[in-house]
Design brief:
- The complex is a heterodimer of chains A (303) and B (394).
- Chain A has eleven helices and no strands.
- Chain A is an all-alpha fold.
- Chain A has one domain.
- The relative contact order of chain B is 0.17.
- Chain B starts with a strand and ends with a helix.
- Chain B is α+β, with helices and mostly antiparallel strands.
- At the A-B interface, α5, α8 and α11 of A face β1, α4, α5, α7 and α14 of B.
Chain lengths: 303, 394
């Protein structure tokens, strides 16, 4: 059964949905920019094509770490996604798996840092150090924001959070809305999308940590990012909208919530320039942390 | 703190031309910058000296794909400066129309690229879509989207057909609302303010010291524009404003360029509406011995051409100075002390054009540069001394 959970749902379903989401993101972006956009299968073709390319390991790079980094990142996403799938549809889960989920969701960022530093490239290490600063910047408000549903549920398990929302979603409260906004912006940074694509900043440091990656390594990193593009909105839906409900009219609601979150992420990334790392850190530690703390206080007071 | 060298180029994906910036950084702060160009040297001046006056126009047109009117404009003015002659007024108007069209499309191109450098790809795509409209106008007027081949010493090659004028005016007017929206989108965006204001500041004094040109200097409060200072073409025939701002940061450079597009549209419209009749070509037969200079305001600043004639049908010396040549050294003032994140947009803010600038590259067979700056100054001084001796000045 573990196999089914991990491979069929955690990996295959997440990857498929992630690639579809990535297509939606690319297509919407293209339409906003007066372009036609890629065909439906393009994200999938990209991954397959990259898998067939040669892997070049830079001279002087730490070989093992360099090759392991993408796999570690992918494993983190698969584990996190499995946790959500199991909690959502199989009534699995365990006490305190919210903490595990938060932990697992940082693994992709850590793997990028690892890969960047292992490449032995000045641009890659610069990107990795930026990613490190960014992780430290957004983790605090992200944890605070995701704490709000936990407070409402009075339960540290994801299944508990979902169950508690059957008679009123978190986003129905003022504290929930504030926390949702904060969490959305943190997700934007977690996905390293504009305005927080600072670690990868193509026009400054040429994709940063990924600069030395080619072939399957790059493919796995791309796949990881696409899967995150599904997993993080999924997590937000679980926390703030009571999870994915696939009965009757609720299918439509779930779909709307999901597409809405993805569209919002896409719109934010298309209507903003990239900020500087110091501005991003100030943004997350300043207004975002204050807002998230306020949301936590409001939630504790039942507002 | 340890210093790292971050190379930008020669194969950098963000700029379409080969160039190498060597940024010396401490952490994220740039402490020194070195610029190296010369990857794209094509020997234009020598080529031009091997062609007739008429044919050289096409050679200089290919110095740069964006300034494909500025160089012929300056060159033809240099040739016309060799001997007393007057260009027909209709030709002057047509030249002005083409030059301003080029300014609009060049500034739009820069605006798009600046957006791209900041990761703001929507502005990139929108600006370039808008640019298509102005390229259409140029195609109607000259038959080409770029490299218009409109100029010849003594006039222009093609006339503007009366039936095309209303279409062009309508097209120019149709881009103004979109341009206005783009202007608001760029100038009112708080995140853009945060990114661009106070970044890469060049003070008034620095602009003077570095002899910065064009929008780069006008953003620092230096009211310098060849179109106003030494009017040519039809620029003195109408009212238009020179856009000057005072902060000297990247934001102001963008403001200057965006507002200049509106002025250019105004000039283009006036010229199209008031196009005088008459000849379009003075039909120059021979160029007598002598020398002439021509300078015009290209989108990036003053473009300068020098032509020397010995009475044959080809120039014996042709010297080109592009605006980027003067604007490149301002990096010393603007980039140092900024972060790498800001460096890219500051480097782009002068709207650099390296292929315009590349005039000399001295190499030995090993690819090592033989002459440094000091050697070249020494060579130049020796040459000046030689000429002075020959002329009996000293």
């Amino acid at each position: 059964m573990t196999f089914v959970y991990l491979i069929v749902f955690g990996f295959a379903a997440t990857a498929a949905l992630g690639l579809v989401t990535s297509w939606i993101d690319r297509k919407v972006t293209a339409r906003v920019q007066y372009r036609v956009g890629p065909p439906f299968l393009q994200p999938f073709i990209d991954i397959v094509k990259l898998l067939g390319k040669e892997t070049v390991i830079p001279a002087g790079a730490s070989r093992g770490t360099f090759l392991m980094a993408p796999v570690i990142g992918l494993a983190g996403v698969v584990a996190a996604a499995t946790l959500f799938w199991v909690n959502q549809f199989f009534e699995g889960g365990f006490m305190g798996d919210w903490i595990v989920a938060i932990y697992l969701l940082t693994v992709p960022s850590l793997s990028i840092i690892l890969g960047g530093f292992a490449s032995r490239n000045p641009l890659a290490s610069l990107g990795a150090s930026r990613e490190m600063k960014l992780v430290m910047a957004y983790e605090l408000p992200f944890i605070l924001a995701t704490l709000v549903p936990v407070i409402w549920a009075g339960d540290l398990s994801i299944s508990g959070i979902i169950e508690n929302q059957s008679d009123g979603i978190t986003a129905g409260h003022l504290s929930g809305i504030i926390a949702l906004i904060v969490a959305l912006l943190c997700v934007q940074a977690k996905l390293a999308l504009v305005p927080f694509d600072i670690p990868e900043a193509e026009t400054e440091i040429v994709e940063g940590p990924l600069v030395e990656y080619s072939g399957p390594g790059l493919a796995v990193f791309r796949l990881m990012k696409n899967m995150l593009l599904f997993t993080l909105p999924f997590f937000l839906i679980i926390l703030f909208f009571g999870g994915m409900r696939l009965n009757g009219i609720n299918i439509l609601w779930t779909l709307l919530e999901y597409v809405g979150i993805v569209a919002l992420i896409t719109v934010i990334r298309n209507t903003n320039p990239r900020v500087r790392i110091d501005q991003a850190v100030r943004f997350f530690w300043g207004p975002m942390t204050v807002l998230a703390t306020a949301a936590v206080v409001l939630a504790l007071n039942g507002i | 703190m340890g210093r790292t060298i971050i190379p930008i180029g020669p194969y950098h994906p963000l700029q379409e031309e080969p160039e190498l910036f060597t940024l010396t950084v401490e952490g994220e702060t740039v402490v020194d910058i070195d610029v190296r160009i010369g990857y794209n040297h094509r020997g234009i001046e020598k080529l031009s000296e091997m062609k007739t006056f008429e044919n050289s126009t096409f050679v200089v047109e290919r110095i740069c794909g964006i300034c494909s009117t500025s160089h012929p404009f300056a060159y033809t003015r240099a040739v016309e400066d060799v001997f007393p002659m007057e260009v027909p007024i209709r030709a002057k108007y047509i030249r002005t129309i083409i030059a301003e069209g080029e300014r609009i499309h060049s500034h739009l191109l820069w605006l798009g690229l600046a957006g791209h450098f900041l990761g703001y790809n929507t502005v990139y795509m929108w600006a370039w879509k808008l640019r298509e409209e102005i390229l259409d106008v140029m195609e109607i007027l000259s038959g080409n989207r770029n490299n218009y081949a409109m100029f010849k010493p003594g006039g222009v090659r093609r006339d503007i057909k009366p039936e095309d004028i209303p279409i062009c005016i309508r097209k120019i007017e149709s881009i103004l609302p979109t341009l206005d929206m783009l202007k608001k989108a760029v100038l009112d965006d708080p995140v853009l303010h945060a990114r661009l204001k106070g970044v890469g500041v060049m003070t008034y004094q620095e602009a003077i010291d570095f002899s910065a040109l064009g929008p780069t200097s006008r953003a620092s409060g230096v009211a310098r524009d060849v179109r106003k200072d030494s009017p040519y073409g039809a620029y003195q025939e109408m009212e238009w404003d020179m856009i000057v701002t005072s902060n000297g940061d990247v934001f102001d450079k963008a403001v200057v360029r965006i507002l200049e597009m509106f002025e250019s549209a105004k000039i283009m419209r006036f010229c199209l509406e008031h196009l005088p009749g008459g000849e379009i070509d003075a039909n120059i037969k021979d160029v007598p011995p002598g020398e002439g200079i021509g300078h015009i305001e290209a989108p990036r600043g003053e473009t300068f051409h020098y032509v020397k004639s010995d009475g044959t049908n080809r120039p014996v010396r042709h010297k080109v100075r592009a605006p980027t040549f003067m604007n490149l050294p301002t990096y010393k003032a603007t980039v140092q002390g900024e972060t790498i994140s800001d460096a890219t947009i500051i480097l782009a803010a002068i709207d650099p054009c390296y292929c315009c600038t590349e005039r000399i590259a001295v190499k030995d067979t090993g690819g090592r540069i033989l002459y440094g700056g000091k050697d070249l100054i020494q060579l130049s001084r020796e040459k000046t001394d030689r000429i002075k001796r020959r002329m009996g000045v000293r």
